[in-house]
Each structure stands twice: as structure tokens, then as C-alpha cells.
Design a protein that fits this description.
This protein is α/β, with parallel strands linked by helices. The chain contains ten helices and ten strands. It has two domains: about 130 residues, ATPase, nucleotide binding domain (Nucleotidyltransferase, domain 5, 2-Layer Sandwich); about 170 residues, Nucleotidyltransferase, domain 5. It has a five-stranded mixed sheet with strand order 3-2-1-4-5, with helices on both faces. A five-stranded mixed sheet has the order 8-7-6-9-10, with helices on both faces. The longest helix is centred in the C-terminal third of the chain and has 27 residues. The radius of gyration is 20 Å and the shape is globular. Bound molecules: 5'-O-[(R)-(carboxyoxy)(hydroxy)phosphoryl]adenosine and zinc ion.
Length: about 325
Amino acid sequence: MKILAIESSCDETAAAVVEDGRTVLSNIVASQVEEHKLYGGVVPEIASRRHAEAIVGVVDEAIKAADCTLDDIDAIAVTYAPGLIGALLVGVNFAKGLSLATGKPLIPTHHLRSHIAANYISHKELKPPFLCLVVSGGHSHIVEVLSYTDMRVIGRTRDDAAGEAFDKAARAMGIPYPGGVELDKIAENGDDAAFPMPHPHVDGSPYDFSFSGLKTAVINLIHNKQQKGEEIPVADVCASYRKAVVGCLTDNFLKAAEDLGYTTLVTAGGVSANSLLRRELERLCKGKYSLYMPEKSLCGDNGAMVGSQSYYEYLDGNIAKSDLNAVATLPIDKRGF
Ligand code: KG4
Ligand code: ZN
């Protein structure tokens, strides 16, 4: 079964053709990041407008790159939640129109479930159940993936998402948006013991995260140095901060795995491209857990992951009706259509 998948939840307009959930025939991503960089973050209205401009070309390119025509496509999938509402609506409306015009079924797909599904592309043998650390720009969750379409969140952030925590700290150091990527690179050359950082815990909820205190600590450190006219040792600050954020993620994730008896651990979302997170999980899981992480090129937003998850949604009968709408906020274990 060939699915044409469309993703427009944030600042990438993406489309892909994926066969039977696992084989990527094409994967086209048009990023708007250079434009949002000028403003230090994603400007929702600009994102919507750029999606509207790009979507026809991106979808057309995805179909051609897969060596297909629309006739070869069996279903159309689209990210309908969660994300920037105006951005989601561009993809949802486009997909609805295409589905109506072609008579092909429309599969509404949850963005975070798609991030998890990136692993089904990278690791053909991977099947639920497993425990997944979902870390993106907007979410930090520990999720029990009980089946391809049945999930339970057992840990979540109480404030900032991990990606957001990286981006905000980076911004305070003058590193351009999306700072998490650059901060990771700079940290590779820093001393991670240079600045002791707090290790926040959420009382009574051992799998929940809280990054706001950590973010405030690093921002105060930077402001303090600026006020004294001292040079900021950027690489050391990045390395110390990255180590602290990654420590929170790995501690809670491994505790949950141990408590709940999972032996297969998976990561998903943009932050799972983080070099230290990947190294630390490799080290901590060695000989104890089977660890799966998406290849770096599939950690960020893309259409291929939507094409993968939507196949399993289709098998589960999750087909949209003509009144499908976009939903800005929707838990991973809820159905919004
Ligand atoms: O999953 P994603 O592409 O979009 C959302 O669904 O939010 O995640 C984007 C986030 C951004 O905050 C970005 O800074 C972060 O992922 N990110 C990283 C790295 N690569 C992307 N954070 C830390 N280290 C990285 N290497
Ligand atoms: Zn994402």
C-alpha cells in the first residue's frame, strides 16, 4: 500500500510516499528555518503563508521522486495535530481537497506518533511494545507504546520541552534559532564539568521532567557574567547545560524502563538527534536494553514518518470523514477526529 503523506505542523512543509509503513519511496522537506531565524523563533503567521506557497510543489515533487503518479497512491495521510493551528490547517485542507478529488481515503495522523514511527523506517525489525522517550521542540514525554496505535503517557514535562529548553538557553548565548542544534555542536568542544547545574526532580512524579529551573540557572549564569563584563565561555556553558538536560532525560527514562520492566527502548523527536543523548543512551543501555533511535535525518519533522505511522492508523480503521479539522493540542493517546 502506497501512502502520500503530508506534514505542515510547524516550520517544515514536507511530503513523502511510503510503502507499507516501512519503505520510503520519496521524502521531500522544504524548511523555512532561515526565515524564522531572523525573528529568533517560528512566527506562526509566516509559517502558514510559507506552507501555502510551498505545499503544491512539495507534494508534486514527492510523487515524482517516488516515480509515481497520483493513480499509484492508495491513500493520503496528513498531520492534523498537534502543532501551530494555522500551519496544520494548510496541510489538512490540502489533503482533504486531494482526497475529495481523487476519492482516496484520508488518514489523520498525530505528529508525535509519527515521530515515534520514524523508527519503523530506520529499524525494520522494530515492533511495539516498547518504551519511548519523545523529545521535540514542543513535547517531552515518556510513552508506553503498547501497540502501533495504543499509547500511554507515563511521564511529561511540567514546563518547557527539552528542545525548547535547549533553544532558549542557546538564544541567551546569542546562538541563532533553532539553537538546540548549534548548542549541541558547540558543546562537543566544551568542559561539561565547568559549571555545576541543578538536577531538577518533580516530587512524587519520578518520570516527569522540569526544565525551567535549569534554563533559569543557565540564563542567570550568562547574565551574571555579562554584568561583570566577563567573557562567556560559551563552549563550557553549552557542555555543562547539555549534560544536565540529558541527565534528566536519561535518568527518568531508564528509571521508568526498570520500574515497568521494558527491555526495548526507543527515542523520537528532534532532540533525539542530540549527540550526547545518543552517546549516553548507547552507554547506559549496553548489555541491558535493546536501544533504537531514528537515523539523524529522520529525527526532525518530515513526511516519511507520517507515511509510516499512517499505515498503521489505516490498518486500525482510523480514516477521516469530510469534516476533519486541525487540532492545536491533542494528547498522543487521544483521537481528535
Ligand atoms: O521534533 P522537532 O523537529 O519539531 C517539533 O515537533 O517540535 O524538534 C525540534 C527541536 C528544536 O527545539 C531543536 O532545537 C531540537 O529539536 N533539536 C536539537 C538537536 N536537533 C534538533 N536539540 C538538541 N540537540 C540537537 N542535536
Ligand atoms: Zn516534530
